[in-house]
Design brief:
- By secondary structure, the protein is mainly α.
- Helix content is 77%, strand content 0%.
- Helix 1 packs antiparallel against helix 2, helix 2 packs antiparallel against helix 3 and helix 7 packs antiparallel against helix 8.
Length: 829
């Protein structure tokens, strides 16, 4: 019985296998016919068979292969969207792993055909990286290089084509890549490299009637731009003679005409250039032809014939570089015909083109200088000397123009006098850099340094003066240069060097008219260095001079009074300033005197008298630079008295009138008022705006923002901004900020984190003792709150050791005793 059952099963299995085999044959035949139709270019027929295949054999093992083939049919029919849908569906199917390289390749090809080169590049690179052994790799390399080429990324294209040729030299794509590589060099204008690389390419395409004329043309272009004009002529002729493409022929003839023109073979150039028809050229080539014809007419002094050609060139061209050459050509033609007003008009038109973005860097400097020079001459021919000077100052490269440096120097002085410091600086730098042999170069250096002092660019002023002293150690301007150098160092707050410079001045230039002023600056430098007694002696010696400038006299008396204050003799200083207030009520130092007296009363907590002086400064000297400071000081007096409304009004005036530093300081103080008024939301708006406008104030603003968030109950943001504050805090800020952060942790019941921050404060060497004690008291309380009495006792004991001079130790001792009484914990020795 068992044997019969087994035989039956074997029979059933055999019949089933035969049936499956027959079905497989049908699948294979149908797919084979679909592939054959595809290969023969009958894509619609192939699609029909593939549709039947998917319908009749939905679960066939080669279903994915059939689907891929249908996408390829769509691709070659130009139905790219349908092809893309097929390939993307396959890409999203995890079962198609063995076809992944084909899917990526054909998807990339669809994007390439759709001019989506960026996406195509991404997919080609993915294929090359993930499937280096794929049969699609050579084609992928070629299409990748072409994609870069189409995007104008010729360097990347060159690298890809080179890799393709090196890795797959026997593949047909390598030959195509060799040709594309030449096109890359041409577009990159790497003519020397092109000339070297093109020779083996000629061998590859020696029988290619389509490619060969292009290769001759590219070779001719490289010879032309390498200034091998005779060789360029030969290659242009070969390109024109071998090409069956009219466009290549006319381009080769155009290059040939320009080559003859540069070879000064004007007859041959004219035969070529005047024979080319405009309608046979594309717009860009039309411009090149017109320019060649115009240059030919100008070079052969047929200016009346050149003018309409240049005019036509300007009208036709949208390229500013071509327009520039058109205007310049018209201007030169008018100039040589003696038509100077017209020449000026076209030179100015050419200058306006230079001002456009990307033009000047693409023009030879010599050409621009020629424009400036001829325009200057055109102005001179009409008697417009000032206009001529304005133009001639721009010339930097033309030889033999050193005599113009004197004119440029005068132009620079005029600019400076008119307050146009940037233009003056440009002129001075041009003289220094372009006319090193100018006989009055030391004057230029000195004047440039004075200009930098006006601009408060003290580093540049110091550099120019030191350069001047190195190059011209015997200059007639030596006393002035040393004095000015000391002033520049003083403005830089480099008081040791300013002291050295003015001390040299005191020793070497006693007969200089600047001598009293030099002594004054020497004294000021000494005061800054803490040598106040010696400085006072020098200041008092200045008062003994027979003749002294009244303004300097006032400054000396002011510094003497302030010197006594710096020595701690407040009453002597105060009495002297009161005398100066009466002695010089309307002088240039009057505002400084009033400011000093106002500060004196403010320091001595007499707000009413302080305000009287600050208000007097504002009312009596509205143009003084101290007015903004006075408003700020007034605001501080009102804030100290909790008169926040008036404080805010005065801070606003300081913001309106002050320099950038004072504006920022007043803006922060104004925002702080909102904190005093318990308006943290309003303060936050101001703080955050300030942080955005002035990022360098983050050390001041971040803690304030954190505190405002804390005050508003937004503890998460408070924590975040305290952490940010800590990142950039110095040692002195760090302790206070970590204490504040610990308070935030404590408020939100993150007690362990709070303990960590409080202990960190206690460990900071720079933390004030009082703050350390406060932090440890907080830790002890937190330990007590969680009934860690041993930890609390240890902290209290540390407090007693840390601050043995603490005035009130009773609280700490009371806590120790209470813990010992109510617990069994012992205090550590």
């Amino acid at each position: 019985m068992k044997i019969k059952i087994i035989l039956a099963l074997i029979l059933i299995f055999s019949i089933t296998s035969l049936s499956i085999a027959i079905e497989n044959v049908k699948e294979e035949e149908l797919l084979f016919m679909a592939k054959k139709a595809y290969e023969d270019g009958f894509y619609e027929v192939s699609l029909g068979m593939l549709e039947r295949f998917r319908r009749d054999f939905p679960n066939a093992p080669k279903a994915f292969q059939a689907t891929l083939l249908s996408g390829q049919c769509y691709f070659y029919q130009g139905r790219y969207l349908e092809a893309l849908n097929v390939f993307e569906a396959l890409a999203n199917n995890p079962v198609t792993g063995s076809f992944r390289d084909a899917i990526d390749f054909w998807t990339a090809e669809v994007h390439f055909k759709g001019n989506n080169f960026a996406k195509a590049i991404q997919l080609y690179q993915k294929l090359i990286s993930n499937f280096p052994q794929s049969s699609f790799i050579p084609a992928a390399y070629y299409s990748l290089g072409w994609s870069f080429f189409q995007l104008g990324k010729y360097n990347q294209a060159r690298e890809i084509f080179t890799d393709l040729m090196e890795k797959f030299p026997r593949e047909p794509q390598s030959q195509e890549a060799a040709f594309k590589l030449i096109e890359c060099f041409y577009n990159l204008k790497e003519y020397a490299e092109l000339k070297v690389k093109i020779k083996p390419v000629f061998k590859i395409f020696s029988n290619d009637v389509l490619r060969l004329p292009y290769l001759y043309f590219y070779l001719a272009e490289s010879e032309y731009y390498l200034d091998n004009l005779e060789e360029a002529v030969k290659s242009y002729l070969k390109s024109a003679q071998t090409s069956q493409d009219p466009k290549v022929q006319v381009l080769a003839r155009l290059g040939l005409g320009w080559s003859y023109l540069k070879l000064k073979k004007y007859k041959e150039a004219e035969e070529i250039l005047m024979d080319i028809k405009l309608e046979s050229l594309e717009p860009k080539s039309i411009e090149i032809l017109l320019l060649g014809q115009a240059v030919l007419m100008s070079t052969t002094e047929r200016f009346n014939q050149a003018k309409p050609l240049y005019e036509q060139l300007v009208l036709l061209s949208a390229d500013p570089l071509i327009a520039f050459q058109g205007y310049l050509g018209q201007a030169d033609a008018h100039f040589y015909l003696g038509e100077y007003p017209q020449a000026v008009r076209f030179y100015q038109a050419a200058l306006s083109v230079i001002g456009q973005q990307g033009v000047q860097e693409n023009l030879p400097g010599e050409l621009i200088d020629k424009l400036y020079y001829n325009l200057g001459l055109a102005y001179l021919k009409q008697g417009q000397i000032d206009a001529s000077a304005d133009i001639l100052k721009r010339i930097t490269r033309k030889e033999g123009q050193i005599a113009q440096a004197g004119m440029l120097f005068q132009v620079g002085l005029a600019y400076e006098e008119a307050g146009e410091l940037a233009k003056a600086e440009e002129v001075y730098n041009k003289i220094i850099n372009s006319y090193p042999d100018f006989c009055n170069a030391d004057y230029v250096y000195y004047q440039s340094a004075l200009l930098q002092l006006k601009k408060q660019n003290y580093t540049a002023a110091v550099f120019n003066l030191n350069s001047m002293l190195d190059k011209f150690p015997r200059t007639k301007l030596l006393p002035e240069a040393v004095y000015t150098l000391g002033s520049a160092y003083f403005q830089q707050a480099d008081y040791m060097r300013s002291y050295e410079a003015f001390n040299r001045f005191r020793s070497e230039f006693k007969v200089s008219p600047l001598y009293p002023q030099g002594l004054f600056m020497l004294a000021r430098s000494m005061i800054k260095l803490g040598k106040v007694d010696a400085a006072l002696d020098i200041l008092k010696s200045i008062l003994k001079f027979d003749s002294i400038d009244s303004e300097l006299l006032q400054r000396v008396e002011y510094e003497i009074a302030d010197g006594y204050f710096k020595l701690g003799q407040d009453q002597v200083a105060f009495d002297r300033f009161k005398v100066l207030r009466v002695k010089y009520p309307d002088s240039k130092i009057a505002a400084d005197i009033i400011w000093w007296l106002g500060q004196y009363y403010y320091r001595n907590n007499d707000s009413n008298l302080a305000r009287r002086y600050f208000n007097a400064l504002i009312q009596d000297f509205p143009d003084s630079q101290l007015v903004a400071d006075a408003f700020y000081a007034l605001a501080l007096t009102f804030r100290d008295e909790n008169n926040l409304l008036l404080a805010a009004d005065n801070f606003k005036m300081a913001i309106k009138l002050g320099n950038p530093d004072l504006k920022a300081q007043a803006a922060i103080a104004l925002a702080d008022i909102y904190i005093f008024q318990d308006k943290p939301e309003a303060a936050l708006i101001e703080y955050r705006q300030l942080l955005q406008d002035i990022p360098r104030l983050n050390n001041l603003l971040l803690p304030r923002i954190a505190q405002a968030y804390y005050q508003s109950g937004n503890y998460a943001q408070a924590k975040l901004f305290y952490l940010k504050s800590i990142e950039s805090a110095d040692n002195y800020q760090l302790a206070e900020l970590r204490f504040k952060l610990a308070e935030v942790y404590e408020t939100v019941a993150e007690n362990q984190a709070a303990i960590g921050e409080y202990l960190a404060v206690a460990d900071l060497a720079a933390a004030p003792l009082e703050l350390k004690v406060r932090a440890l008291l907080r830790v002890a309380k937190l330990y007590e709150d969680k009934e860690d009495f041993k930890g609390a006792l240890n902290i209290y004991q540390n407090i007693l050791q840390l601050a043995p001079s603490l005035l009130d130790k009773s609280f700490v001792r009371e806590r120790i005793e209470e813990i010992k009484m109510n617990t069994s914990v012992e205090v550590l020795p």
